[in-house]
Amino acid sequence: MLEIKNLQVKLEEEDKQILKGVDLVIEPGTVHAIMGPNGSGKSTTSYVLSGKDGYEVIGGSATLDGVDLLEMEPEERAAAGLFLAFQYPVEIPGVGNMTFLRTAVNAQRKARGQEEMSAAEFLKVVREKAKTLKIDAEMLKRPVNVGFSGGEKKRNEILQMAMLEPKMCILDETDSGLDVDAMKLVAEGVNALRDGKRSFLVITHYQRLLDHIQPDVVHIMANGRIVKSGGPELALEVEQNGYADILAEVQ
Ligand code: ADP
Ligand code: MG
Ligand code: MG
């Protein structure tokens, strides 16, 4: 279970507070969505959870199954079961996708005190997962993300997610947005990886993604706080009326 309590965060370089007391509890096996106007602190929330540089936690806590995430290095957070999708869209010329995935998986296993996966075992697992996710095995042989289309990059991120078997996946659909096809791919991947224990936090500015991923709980973030939470109908309300009504109501 992910438990965020009164999380307050400022920029490291500037005297600017971005998160002003975020409270969020995500139970195992549930899908939560965070929506909200631009600049409300959605991406900052995901960055702080993943341990990105540049942010200073000035109050509150964030734990995964009772373990303090905020004290950990990013690799330790991954080992603890946290996965931030769209965190590795980088192209790595000269490094085969398969090698990259295996290195990531084995680094995580090592941090968990588990034995490395053998090349043969890895190959078997990655082929199975690629098949389940309808990913062409040919993509596994190519250098990481080099010359990948937007859709292929998304598929690859979903494959990374599948291989690392996280407990808690955070997906941030950046403001640049995904096109409809890429969005469907992401949604299919998420739906394929839902299993009753794994949880998802889907961050999105628009309602569109939630047409394809049915969330259990929808939160609205504004000005560094979660100001309203509800069921999937909250996303539809935003789609129809925008944020103005909700924000006026909670002022
Ligand atoms: P959202 O994802 O909801 O659009 P962000 O978390 O990206 O919002 O940003 C929240 C606010 O913090 C915005 O006002 C943004 O300009 C500011 N912000 C976030 N990160 C930085 C940064 N590294 N430098 C300057 N301002 C930042
Ligand atoms: Mg933004
Ligand atoms: Mg954002």
Automatic annotation (TrEMBL):
Pfam families: ABC_tran. Coiled coil: none annotated. It comes from the Bacteria. InterPro entries: AAA+_ATPase, ABC_transporter-like_ATP-bd, ABC_transporter-like_CS, FeS-cluster_ATPase_SufC, P-loop_NTPase. Residues 2-248 form the ABC transporter domain. Keywords: ATP-binding, Nucleotide-binding. One of its GO terms (molecular function) is ATP binding. Belongs to the ABC transporter superfamily. Ycf16 family. This is Fe-S cluster assembly ATPase SufC. It comes from Thalassobius vesicularis.
